[in-house]
Amino acid sequence: MADTQQVDAKAERKVARLAKQISAFSKEHGGAEGQLAYVGERGTRIVLVGEDGGWGDLMAPTYEIAEKAVEKSGITVHEEFDGEFAAKVRTGPYEWTRMAGIQVGGPSNG
Question: What's the rounded mean pLDDT across residues 50-60?
Fold first, then answer.
């Protein structure tokens, strides 16, 4: 019984920590929405998009912890990262370089 209580207490601390980070992101960006993406053994990725187009992500050890954290933070959660939600993301020069560097201006094969 004590082991279960320790696991539950640890999970609740993680939920609280993630919810605090999500809330801080939301406050900094004029509000936020999110999407949860299970990534296997690594856990669940919490993708955040601010009202100003800023974006970021956090990792939760389990899908359940991610769900509880976004619920506790009060943000809107989308089932998928597409359509209007994806269109809210604003990227800058760094992202364009990273995403298309090889095709646009990265190393050549010659």
Answer: 93
